[in-house]
Design a protein that fits this description.
Layout lengths: L16 H4 L3 E3 L5 E11 L4 E9 L9 E6 L3 E4 L4 E4 L3 H5 L17 H10 L1
Parallel strand pairs: 1-6
Antiparallel strand pairs: 1-2, 2-3, 3-4, 5-6
Length: 121
């Protein structure tokens, strides 16, 4: 896991993607869910659209599930040094998943809209 700096940058609230990738994600009760595996940027809006969360399975990657989460559903918890996923566990367990290799074509094929729709209903 990459080391995350806690020092504030001159642009407070702006961090590099490498500081997010590998960061632990927690559920609302504070239990560890997994880690942020990637972030998906929207080239048109120039904003982060999704964080790719992985959990489940074995460390070798077998049976791991990758969850695209709208960025707005995450908040950084300084005390834990990780992100809180603002969803109940049941909603996340039933959420759309993807293969990590598929993430490069999102937004272009409409997958992003389908995932976003799941979380707004």
């Amino acid at each position: 896991m990459p080391e995350t700096s806690t020092a504030m940058s001159p642009m407070a609230g702006v961090i590099g993607a490498t500081s997010v990738i590998g960061t632990t994600a927690y559920d609302l009760e504070g239990d560890r869910l997994g880690e942020i595996r990637d972030v998906m940027l929207n080239e048109r809006s120039e904003k982060i659209e999704f964080a790719i969360l992985n959990f489940g399975g074995h460390f070798s990657g077998i049976n791991q599930r990758y969850y695209p989460l709208p960025w707005r559903l995450l908040s950084f918890d300084k005390a834990r040094g990780g992100y809180i996923v603002k969803l109940d566990r049941q909603k996340l367990d039933n959420a759309p998943t993807c293969e990590l290799s598929d993430t490069g074509v999102w937004l272009a094929d409409g997958s992003g809209q389908r995932v976003d729709g799941y979380y707004t209903t």
